[in-house]
Amino acid sequence: MPDPLQLLLDVQDRDLSADQLRHRRASLPERLARAEQEGLIVRVDTELAELQARLADLQRSQKRIEDDVATVQAKSEAENKKLYSGTVTSPRELQAMQEEIDALTRRQHDLEDEVIVLMETAEPLTEEIDRLEAQRGAAETDAARLAALIVEAEGVIDGELAAVLADRDGIAAGVPDDLLATYEKLRVHLDGIGVARLDGVQCTGCHLSLPATEVAAVRKATPGAVVYHEECGRILVP
Ligand SMILES: [Zn+2]
């Protein structure tokens, strides 16, 4: 029958492999890269929302002025029609109408100038919105590519992890329950290492050297007896 302590060392070995796989799974570089792309998308969205709101304001102003232009133009055309209809014959009245038409034309030009200013203000905003939308699209593509890589890497790691854990459970079945429970409790508090080998005079768990008397005590212990390294608290196997 295999020595339970030797089996426990094998369980420890598989547990460390499983820990490494879990660590690798959690710290895949693609995860960080994807988080960066997602952060970028959030920042770009904030900027886009602000620019789009400013652009919408400008477009509303432009629409209002263009409506005014249409009104002024209609009025001017009506006056013109009346002027040339022959219904008005008084020179003073005709003169007044011509002045009114001239005033409307000036007003129309002023409004059209305002529209041009608004369009010129909107142009760089539109360009910046286009640039940000392209940047957002590229970030989304990249994030999707990274997500696929993460799923793929996770699949590979999960496969390896399942194999290691199955192996571990098979070995652990040969370890008495109370010894296994003690080991697992130690593992939680001691950086994942609950049992260590005595290598010469050194504990492979904490890498401290043991005094000669302690080494002798470990080596002399009854076979199968559970001995602990006093310094680090781990189960020590001679
Ligand atoms: Zn130790």
Largest sheet: 4 strands, mixed
What's the architecture of the largest domain, going by CATH? Answer: Orthogonal Bundle
Tally the helices: 5
CATH class identity of the largest domain: Mainly Alpha
Care to count the β-strands? 4
> CA-to-CA gap between the ends?
18 Å
In CATH terms, what is the fold-level topology of the largest domain? Helix Hairpins
Number of domains: 2
Q: Which structural class do the helices and strands define?
A: mainly alpha
Bound molecules: zinc ion
Oligomer: single chain
Average pLDDT, to the nearest integer? Answer: 96
Order of helices and strands: HHHHEEHEE
List keywords for this structure.
single chain, 238 residues, mainly alpha, Helix Hairpins, 2 domains, four-stranded mixed beta sheet, binds zinc ion
Give a structural overview.
The protein is mainly alpha-helical and 238 residues long. It folds into 2 domains: 17-172, Helix Hairpins, CATH 1.10.287.1490; 177-237, no CATH class. The protein is 77% helix and 5% strand. The chain is built from 5 helices and 4 strands. The chain has helices at residues 4-26, 29-85, 91-172, 177-189, 212-220; strands at residues 195-199, 202-203, 227-228, 235-237. A 4-stranded mixed β-sheet has the order 2-1-4-3. A hairpin with a 6-residue loop joins strand 3 and strand 4. The longest helix is centred in the middle third of the chain and has 82 residues, at 91-172. It is rod-shaped, with a radius of gyration of 42 Å. The structure holds zinc ion.
